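quick q for whoever's on today - can somebody do inverse folding on this one?? i tried earlier but teh output was garbage lol. tokens:
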């Protein structure tokens, strides 16, 4: 997968349309004070309210499409919406304003349910008492009160993204009054006194950022304004970083990747010059900037290639914080800015980023780890990974998936892990957000659910048999520990005989704590030549919620498979990063940050679950219309392009006067798009348009059309006359030799 801008590169870029029941538009304006203003409109669909029973009490549950729980345990469960807004290059935010429209008073007397308790997955308790936050529920005022919450500004490959939470619903717990704002206008003012970091000006980076934000047209400004970018001296997709003694064990993996087009380089800590995590991160930044890498495989256990130990905390229902230190390879993935701004012993605090803001939480490179201790571990890991790279895509076992859920304790709907696992199949809109899971028509499923098992306790032998008989994917929610996962202990891994290797995603506690003695995730992936080729496990507690399936770990699990099946992201490292970034807007909820830090990938991040289809980009669009304009007069312009593969198309138009559209469409290949535009000032303008196909997102080159101001000078009069002669009497002019 080389970074050259070719048809094959663009065919490797999958684009999925974000389908939401909201509309938004944007406009960038530069005023006389060198400030830029971004305006967006969010329109919300119908709010549903229905009654539920919790602990013999009746509550009102609110459901608003594509809005979700953002508060903490015990607070009213009011849906909010995350907004991801691309800022102009080298800018800083000076003001954020909210304007509300279509206010709807829903009446009084509502008793909105409280958010359930966050519970470590390792705990089995009796039914907890449903606890309300007495302060908030006793407040005779509206909650959340503010119409938006500032989350932070985060960087993706040099593009700065503002993340905020919108609160279209306001609730007075004392009077029970509900107010619903159906339209919210967001205005972001910026000044051009910021800095740029890590911007590479690569088309692949621009394509990716445009998928992440609601105003993708701003991305065009970055290449126009930032002139000083690093030169890609060498060209690699994957960096394997290990030690001198283990380096040669990774050579077969390098060769396998190169043969498939994933250009790979192996470097060691000797090249880094240190085993200090800060130095390793700096080396990765240098490789990202100068080699264009997208993936990093760390070839060593924590005591060989050290992870950064981050500090994190989360709140339970009684607002008592859980806190811990944990190993997180997120530090090597998100490369912009510091992770310890205040210089204390707690890396990764929400104020440890640049200038005391949040740390960077959007991945610039996608990181996985081969948790190897010696050359035998390397050989096991490499042999399984190479086998998966070279697998026959028609193998029957690749269509087998297992879902395993355990008894979690008596917590209402959260009693059974199977209730959570069912949300990973097909489309699911539970808990206020929609994800696409395993398509049931394409897969054969095995269920290991305590909920449905005789005696409510499936035995470990069943899981061992599932693995030995050949299964591609295993999903798990149940109690775990460092040496225990899916009801198996470390030594049970030696009972595996499979040569068809699996991928495991488990929400269990501590099974991925690789900073301790060898955890069971290491046994699954590197201690034998059987078992799993890769997986995602938690370094410390996993988290679920009482009386709800909207557990913190569950959100990441659902979004991971939504990345794979809904957003067409087959690369496991990229899918893991996407599952986190889809939850970034609620990073301050309960234990979301905890899971964000701890869900590490054990495996090669560049591996793909399925092959990427080839695709050719659309043709450069043709633009036609009046070539001269008068100020204040509306003119029609046509835009048309074709796609070699017959895909539907979206159009983006830059009118050349500071105005531009969102991506418009979809339109059929060859269909004409006609838009009207009015130029409000004298001058010559160049209309530009590009096209991208759906769903891949491959983009055309820019089409251009020049429009000149129509003055009343004799020269322009003659020019207009000549142009009309060309249009109406081309044969006469030909005969006259003109």
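ok took a stab at it. sequence:
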């Amino acid at each position: 997968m080389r970074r050259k801008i070719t048809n094959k590169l663009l065919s490797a870029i999958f684009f999925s349309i974000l389908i939401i029941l909201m509309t938004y538009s944007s406009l960038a304006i530069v005023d006389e004070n060198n400030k830029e203003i971004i305006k967006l409109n969010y329109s919300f669909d119908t709010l549903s309210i229905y009654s539920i029973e919790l602990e013999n009490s009746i509550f009102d549950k609110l459901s608003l499409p594509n809005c979700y729980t953002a508060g903490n345990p015990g607070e009213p469960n009011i849906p909010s919406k995350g907004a991801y807004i691309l800022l102009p290059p080298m800018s800083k935010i000076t003001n954020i304003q909210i304007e509300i429209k279509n206010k709807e008073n829903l009446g009084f007397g509502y008793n909105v349910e409280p958010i359930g308790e966050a519970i470590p997955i390792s705990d089995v308790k009796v039914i907890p008492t449903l606890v309300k936050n007495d302060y908030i529920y006793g407040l005779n005022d509206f909650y959340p009160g503010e119409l938006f919450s500032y989350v932070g500004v985060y960087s993706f490959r040099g593009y700065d993204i503002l993340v905020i939470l919108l609160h279209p619903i306001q609730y007075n717990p004392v009077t029970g009054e509900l107010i619903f704002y159906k339209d919210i206008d967001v205005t972001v003012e910026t000044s051009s006194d910021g800095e740029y970091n890590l911007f590479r000006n690569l088309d692949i980076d621009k394509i990716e950022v445009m998928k992440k934000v609601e105003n993708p047209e701003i991305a065009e400004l970055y290449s126009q304004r930032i002139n000083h970018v690093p030169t890609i001296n060498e060209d690699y997709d994957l960096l394997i970083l290990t030690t001198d003694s283990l380096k040669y064990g990774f050579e077969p993996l390098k060769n396998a990747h190169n043969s498939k087009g994933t250009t790979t380089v192996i470097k060691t800590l000797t090249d880094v010059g240190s085993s200090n995590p800060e130095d390793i991160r700096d080396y990765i930044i240098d490789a990202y900037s100068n080699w264009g890498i997208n993936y990093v495989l760390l070839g060593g256990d924590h005591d060989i290639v050290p992870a950064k130990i981050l500090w994190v905390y989360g709140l339970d229902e009684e607002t008592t914080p859980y806190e811990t230190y944990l190993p997180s390879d997120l530090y090597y993935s998100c490369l912009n800015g510091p992770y310890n701004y205040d210089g204390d012993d707690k890396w990764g605090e929400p104020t440890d980023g640049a200038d005391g803001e949040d740390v960077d939480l959007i991945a610039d490179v996608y990181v996985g780890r081969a948790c190897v201790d010696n050359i035998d571990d390397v050989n096991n890991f490499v042999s399984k990974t190479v086998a998966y790279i070279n697998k026959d895509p028609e193998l029957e076992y690749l269509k087998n998936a297992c879902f395993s859920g355990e008894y979690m304790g008596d917590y209402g709907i959260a009693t059974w892990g199977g209730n959570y696992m069912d949300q990973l199949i097909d489309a699911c809109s539970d808990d206020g957000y929609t994800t696409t899971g395993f398509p049931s028509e394409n897969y054969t499923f095995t269920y290991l659910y305590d909920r449905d098992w005789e005696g409510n306790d499936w035995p470990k032998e069943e899981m061992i048999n599932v693995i030995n008989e050949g299964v591609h994917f295993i999903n798990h929610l149940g109690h775990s520990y460092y040496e225990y996962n899916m009801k198996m202990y470390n030594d049970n891994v030696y009972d595996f005989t499979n040569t068809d290797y699996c991928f495991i995603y488990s929400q269990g506690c501590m099974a991925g704590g690789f900073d301790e003695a060898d955890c069971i995730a290491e046994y699954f992936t590197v201690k034998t030549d059987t078992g799993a080729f890769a997986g995602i496990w938690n370094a410390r507690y996993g988290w679920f919620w009482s009386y709800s399936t909207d557990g913190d770990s569950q959100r990441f699990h659902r979004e991971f498979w939504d990345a794979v099946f809904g957003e067409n992201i087959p690369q496991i490292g990229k899918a893991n990063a996407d599952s986190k970034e889809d939850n970034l807007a609620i990073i301050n909820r309960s234990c979301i940050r905890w899971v964000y830090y701890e869900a590490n990938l054990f495996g090669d991040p560049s591996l793909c679950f399925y092959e990427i289809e080839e695709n050719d980009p659309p043709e450069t669009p043709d633009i036609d219309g009046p070539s001269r304009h008068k100020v204040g007069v509306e003119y029609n312009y046509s835009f048309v392009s074709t796609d070699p593969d017959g895909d539907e198309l979206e159009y983006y138009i830059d009118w050349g006067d500071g105005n531009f559209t969102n991506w418009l469409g979809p339109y059929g290949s060859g269909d004409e798009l006609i838009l009207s535009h009015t130029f409000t000032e004298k001058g010559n303008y160049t209309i530009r348009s590009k096209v991208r196909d759906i769903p891949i997102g491959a983009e055309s080159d820019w089409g251009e059309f020049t429009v000149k101001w129509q003055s009343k000078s004799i020269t322009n009069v003659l020019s207009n006359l000549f142009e009309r002669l060309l249009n109406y009497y081309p044969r006469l002019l030909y005969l006259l030799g003109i």
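fwiw The chain has a mean pLDDT of 89. also Residues 19-196 form a domain with the Immunoglobulin-like fold (CATH 2.60.40.3800). so keep that in mind when u check it
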